[in-house]
């Protein structure tokens, strides 16, 4: 055994011997007399509690110790006395106080190496005759007009009894009258508190709380009396409105601000401090240079609907970082009415899938609407763009072409010829496209040179045109003299037509159809029609050097369409055809609506004729849509040369 252990054992033995010889002989660390006195009256239970068993004095969880109580008057050790005294470690209980118990009592705590000493004072007063309650009273202030709470000054007793697992009860009195829980304006709260509603000056009184329990086989009680007075300037317990124990999501890297909003029901100025805490640490910095800081406490008054004061303090982040998430931020209010607190939890913001989805959905809807509008109004949109922004289109005047379009139609005496077709080709079409719209057309039968060979005329004028307008009816490609219907026979047709032209070239005469023959005029006319069709299809389908616009002058049935040349059917299926007969149907419906009114019918006929020649008619808009664009952008000479190839 080492010297230190031997010395410790001797001192501990010497301390135990001091119990027999008297505590005054020991040289212990003296903690003097406790500041708090214990007041009692005869017949009550009183408790003296030493504060030496504390980590501030020694490590009582690791060092063995014992506690001894002494009567400072007699110097004798206090021991259990049936029905009178009960010693429970650092607590000395008087189960039935008498006047002789008044005085000081000494606690000595001994360890193997040292001892500690402390005095506690018990003051025993006689009750005042004719008064209820205790002679020594505590004072508490109540706030007028609202609800306030009295606290019984016996929490030390209830704490000890809870540690012993001893049940107890508390009864409140106003003066000598008992107060029933929940009756009138009084309510028992949290065992040791009494809530009083609608406080008035009449509530100024002495209130006594009596604690009753059984200890050491003795049932007794201890009481405390409170002098309560109601003051006009009052402040009740603060109410924290924000935050509200909530979860808040924020974006990492962004700034963030959250306020603590507190309301105090009061008249006068409350003494209240609002503080933010993070991980248990106070946030007191108010400088924006700190990443996490608070604002100064702001205060403003409110008179209605409740009279009181609002207090606000902001918690601010200049930039949110990863370590700021998944933790609680607490707003705590410090006041003499309590310390209420609320918190919020900060979480990272979820990826926003709704906004991109809405944007995508909106873009899809916008796209569908745009496509629908363009499909319905494509012609009008394109014509408006051409008219508004001609600079985006090249000037066609220098591309080597003489005509905007070559007009091919069944000539007189040819298969598919009709007076309506000739009228449309020779009168209606030029009146709108040339006079109203400014296009230059080559119309076979009007613009060909006298004596010119048919092959040369067709080839040269088609090559000098930017478009070919192929006018046809149902009988144009289904007549008995039609000998070729497929694009595979194009070369043979061209050869055959050339031979016919060469054999009859010397028999030409000058008339309204440029050329005619004596005995084989109908052969000539069919030949020109075949040449135009074959040349157009060859350039459009095989070479891709010419755009052919199909113009249907009458409605075509499926059975009639099946007899069309394959090249025409293919082109019609690929790009569609412009249907003049739809305009005629519209005209017929209009005439039907005007029937029965003779004067109006005559005028209506003239009006409709004018309307049919109006460039704003849907048919003529579509025709202009397929015609070359009259642009203003200059073309470089080398590009012009390439266009002439």
Write a short abstract of this structure.
The chain has 645 residues and is of the alpha+beta class. The protein is built from 13 helices and 32 strands.
Describe what this molecule looks like in 3D.
The protein is of the alpha+beta class and 645 residues long. It has five domains: 3-124, Immunoglobulin-like, CATH 2.60.40; 137-232, Immunoglobulin-like (Sandwich), CATH 2.60.40; 239-348, Immunoglobulins (Immunoglobulin-like, Sandwich), CATH 2.60.40; 355-386; 405-627, Toll/interleukin-1 receptor homology (TIR) domain (Rossmann fold, 3-Layer(aba) Sandwich), CATH 3.40.50. Helix content is 29%, strand content 29%. The chain has 13 helices and 32 strands. Helix 4 (419-436) links the parallel strand 28 and strand 29 (441-443). The longest helix is centred in the middle third of the chain and has 35 residues, at 354-388.
Q: Classify the fold: give the CATH topology of the largest domain.
A: Rossmann fold
In CATH terms, what is the architecture of the largest domain? 3-Layer(aba) Sandwich
- Counting DSSP H or I runs of 4 or more residues, the number of helices is 13
Largest sheet: 6 strands, antiparallel
- SS strand fraction: 25-35%
> Roughly what is the average pLDDT, rounded to an integer?
81
Provide the structure class: alpha+beta
Secondary structure tally: strands: 32
Q: How far apart are the termini? A: 123 Å
Stretches where pLDDT is under 50 for at least 5 consecutive residues are: 1-21, 480-524, 596-608, 637-645
- The outline comes out as rod-shaped
